[in-house]
């Protein structure tokens, strides 16, 4: 069993300028055996620190970390039965691929036969058979990345830790490696903890995603749950691209009043919003749930909003249309044939069944 458990784990750094600085503010979670969990969040949110604490490269200030059934607080990294793949791969440049793959095993004093067998198996899994005698500089970025993963695989660890492993690759290769990593996870059946700041990578790879901000876990959930039911405005704005729109609204009876429109709320929504009668709230609506009136065939046309088009971006498969509601710029992701030009007064249809409301003070989702 290779579960990874955090029990109220806290990390404070002593920083000359900032004094004592909280990088991780008391995290608790359970990563199940064989689960692929991705930590995601903006730069500095504490995700790498969390990973390095699992690895033992950073000592937590307080709290317990368990790997399998063992408390590993005092265990040296090499005794934690984990393997880490870094952003910069950290390959030995003067060694061949074969030597890079074998190096760690030699250090562990494994037999020659065992090393050979493990290297063979990893190189076949990763498609490196033809490259075993090459040096890292004779490899492409993607191939180097595979060697870095191979070095982790040969050690047959309980838990794989990945720290932004794809960030040095170009966009196309990143997508290819993403698919390879997902397949690798299925094949290895190992527990994987993966850190990235890229929400698309998180959404495509993670069985569950841990969203962090300012050292605090905001939500832990499968990708679709994060997308459909974000717990607060941070998660709602971070997951999904382009980001969810936030519009200032007021609840009056069964209506949400926004600048230029009064939306009658579906019954279920109106019931949930009753406690906010007369109060300001934030309406959250994703760009893909706003349609041009001329291309809104499957949505009920009752929630209309007219606004002047500010910017149109043509992306080929869709257009992004920007307009203002009150102080806020709103993005609609519309059908590419939607008629929209800068300066045009256009009617948009909001699919209110997909909307959320947030408390403007706590930023927590109401519905
Ligand atoms: P990134 O995506 O930029 O790597 P991150 O979410 O991985 O960000 P961490 O590297 O975990 O963030 O850092 C969290 C916070 O702790 C940051 O504010 C960082 O400046 C601070 N920090 C990290 N390492 C140290 C250190 N050794 N000493 C002092 N502060 C540190």
UniProtKB/TrEMBL annotation:
<dbReference type="InterPro" id="IPR003593">
    <property type="entry name" value="AAA+_ATPase"/>
</dbReference>
<dbReference type="Pfam" id="PF00005">
    <property type="entry name" value="ABC_tran"/>
</dbReference>
<keyword id="KW-0067">ATP-binding</keyword>
<feature type="domain" description="ABC transporter">
    <location>
        <begin position="4"/>
        <end position="239"/>
    </location>
</feature>
<protein>
    <submittedName>
        <fullName>sn-glycerol-3-phosphate ABC transporter ATP-binding protein UgpC</fullName>
    </submittedName>
</protein>
<dbReference type="GO" id="GO:0140359">
    <property type="term" value="F:ABC-type transporter activity"/>
</dbReference>
<dbReference type="InterPro" id="IPR012340">
    <property type="entry name" value="NA-bd_OB-fold"/>
</dbReference>
<dbReference type="GO" id="GO:0008643">
    <property type="term" value="P:carbohydrate transport"/>
</dbReference>
<dbReference type="InterPro" id="IPR017871">
    <property type="entry name" value="ABC_transporter-like_CS"/>
</dbReference>
<dbReference type="GO" id="GO:0005524">
    <property type="term" value="F:ATP binding"/>
</dbReference>
<keyword id="KW-0813">Transport</keyword>
<dbReference type="InterPro" id="IPR027417">
    <property type="entry name" value="P-loop_NTPase"/>
</dbReference>
<dbReference type="Pfam" id="PF17912">
    <property type="entry name" value="OB_MalK"/>
</dbReference>
<dbReference type="InterPro" id="IPR003439">
    <property type="entry name" value="ABC_transporter-like_ATP-bd"/>
</dbReference>
<dbReference type="InterPro" id="IPR047641">
    <property type="entry name" value="ABC_transpr_MalK/UgpC-like"/>
</dbReference>
<dbReference type="GO" id="GO:0055052">
    <property type="term" value="C:ATP-binding cassette (ABC) transporter complex, substrate-binding subunit-containing"/>
</dbReference>
<dbReference type="GO" id="GO:0016887">
    <property type="term" value="F:ATP hydrolysis activity"/>
</dbReference>
<dbReference type="InterPro" id="IPR008995">
    <property type="entry name" value="Mo/tungstate-bd_C_term_dom"/>
</dbReference>
<keyword id="KW-0547">Nucleotide-binding</keyword>
<dbReference type="InterPro" id="IPR040582">
    <property type="entry name" value="OB_MalK-like"/>
</dbReference>
<dbReference type="InterPro" id="IPR015855">
    <property type="entry name" value="ABC_transpr_MalK-like"/>
</dbReference>
